[in-house]
Amino acid sequence: MPKISVIVPVYNVEKYLKQCLESIINQTFKDIEIICVNDGSTDNSRKILKEYKNKDSRIRIIDKKNGGLSSARNAGLRFSTGEYISFIDSDDWIDETMFEKLYNNITQMNTDISICAVHRFDEKKSQIDDSNPYFTLEYFNETFDNKVFSYKDTTHFLMDVCVMAWNKLYRKSFLDELGAEFPEGLIFEDGPFFFSIFFKTNRVSIIRDFLYYYRINRKGSIVQKGGKHFIDIIDVVDLMYNSIKDTPVFDEIKSEFLKRKINDIVYRYDLVNIFYKWQFYRKIKNKKYLFDDDVFKEESTTKELQLIYLKLIEMRDKNNIIRFYKNKYKIKFMYKIMQILYTEENIYYLKYRKLILRIKKHPKICDIWYQDDRIYVVLFYRIKFNFKFEYSKLEQS
Fold first, then answer.
1. What are the E-state strand segments in the chain?
2. Which domains does the chain have, with CATH numbers?
3. Tens-digit pLDDT profile for residues 359-388
4. Cα angle at 98 between 125 and 6, to 5 degrees?
5. Degrees (nearest 5) of the Cα angle 304, 310, 312?
6. What SS3 state is found at 50?
7. What Å distances lie between residue 342 and 321, 348, 352, 378, 397, CA to CA?
8. Which of 232, 302, 303 is nearest to 269 (CA)?
9. Number of other CB atoms surrounding residue 183 within 10 Å
């Protein structure tokens, strides 16, 4: 049984995969197994994995149908045999001392989770950016050094604790006891996973060494595309809310949680493709806990955040706007049908863009009429059908 199981989800990352694997196999801490979960890659990723497996017997390859990052990580968890667990994303890489330092920290401090600092590598600029204290662990002051702590010690900056799965080492028995899993079918999955375990332990520790290199602004990354999955942010916030509402610090952190997460929701809404915005409207309406006027009337609420909250309300109320436009076009459609039926008695013109369909009314071929709020159609005497068409209500209005 190895000391550490390193779980690496892999999906179409042939450009970055070698750098990632090299950084893992060259660790100063050697007692590891490397579980590479090939999540249905269609590029050369599988070939690269096989090449490295032939070089290093510690590498295991698990092939599965594409199910997303959470699904791949969960599969890796099920196959892991190590005493501790680490997750490394296959487009990132790590310092060669990462596992040695995290292992020493988690064993010496006897904790369930050990956290390290993160370098962000900007793919577009080809340079490291350490300006974000969320990743550099600057929100943890010096009193957290060489100390075992719990979430209760972080309530004043809980929303600034880095939730990412990959800059941590976890005790496997702790994860197994909780039945910890990533929520499948969603992106932004790290938050729900971290919150589901962070509130269940009193033993967490940190080291300030920068041991993980997180690649940002990567071309082709799912979080850069603004696709349909951006709507997942609403379900993700829901899962995180359910994790904190039963904690004894809920009243203390509720306000900050709502402010941060509403900001996240509106941010993703602004980025999502216009074709999916209406789905945002539908989901938001049912999340009543998000619409807390008292929270956003607090003196500490900035004008910018108040505007964001107003935008959230607008998103919720857009359902009414959608209903208005649906009715508007339904009315236009009904008038058009009646115009076709009565403008020229013997000929029907059905126009779609440049295409015009001309149908001559003939009882033996096609007969269409309106009666008692129904449209009747008879084709070749034999094919008959009708459907509800409440034009009389339209006329009365």
1. 4-10, 32-39, 59-64, 84-87, 93-94, 113-122, 127-129, 168-171, 204-216, 347-352, 355-360, 366-371, 374-379, 383-388
2. 1-219 (3.90.550.10), 225-342 (no CATH), 344-396 (no CATH)
3. 666 666 777 778 888 888 887 777 888 888
4. 100
5. 110
6. helix
7. 32, 9, 19, 17, 20
8. 232
9. 21
